[in-house]
What does this fold into?
Amino acid sequence: MRHGKKFNHLSRQTGHRKSMLANMACSLIEHKRINTTVAKAKALKQFVEPLITKSKEDTTHNRRIVFAYLRNKYGVTELFREVAAKVGDRPGGYTRIIKVGNRLGDNADMAMIELVDFNEIYNGGKKEEKKAKSRRGGKAKKSETPATETSAPEAAAEETTDSAE
It folds into this structure.
């Protein structure tokens, strides 16, 4: 029985699973978004979120703890510099899993896992720019410019017809 055993073993032995999650976490920190299977994405979320929480307080002790999990000094540096700066005020939920369909080869459920604060589309940065524009003012300018352009060719056409008669 597996009472009280919460994490997914992913059909791998302990050493392989820890190395795989460490590599995936470093890739996620470096690229801010990766594609993987749904099961691996859920396991990675449980693996990486406590590390991001540790990175909010930049101490030598926290860096050593995170390095023991990631085993990549560039990943640790990126996590404590860029990622921690963006997620400093967020109380949790640093990653988002979006299901993207099935893989062609074996029909496995695929997902995209990403860091929430690094996605500009969902954060609403572009929506504020659209609100600044006024629709009414844009239509008035467009209606004035075509009117002057159409009146000039019409006037030229009338002159040519008058001179031809």
Summary: The chain has a mean pLDDT of 85. DSSP finds seven helices and three strands in the chain. The two ends are 102 Å apart (CA to CA). Residues 9 and 98 are 22 Å apart (CA to CA).
